[in-house]
Amino acid sequence: MDDYPLLNLFLTMMYIFLWVLWFFLLFKVITDIFRDHSLNGWAKAAWLIFVIVLPYIGVLVYLIVRGRSMGQRDVKQAKDQEAAFRKYVQEAAGSEGGSGTGNSHVAELAKLADLKDNGHIDQQEYEKAKAKLLA
Prior knowledge:
The structure is a single chain. This protein is mainly α. It has helices at 6-35, 41-53, 55-94, 101-118, 123-134. Helix 1 runs antiparallel to helix 2, helix 2 crosses helix 3 (55-94) and helix 4 runs antiparallel to helix 5. The relative contact order is 0.05. The mean pLDDT is 86.
């Protein structure tokens, strides 16, 4: 370890970081090529060949030409995933109780919690109403 200076260690760590960053960017571009529905098959094949044959130039050109739409697709995918998660949670919460009454119980409990949080009812009234609702 005496013949390997600290600066060389730092440079080695930086090269490894840049190498990992490069592969992350390369795979991000390749997945975006296949995720884009506005490109036809030939355009996807051309971009993929360009990115594989000339990787540095291909990735940089792709980011310059299609970077904005790449970001928009990322945002749209995140929104779609969040909407699907919210829908799943609502369906799961509504399915309790069997005959569809679970959803109304959840709504009533939410209203009770709101009333308690706003100070319209105290803790005792809240507990009584909750017990009555759940009975």
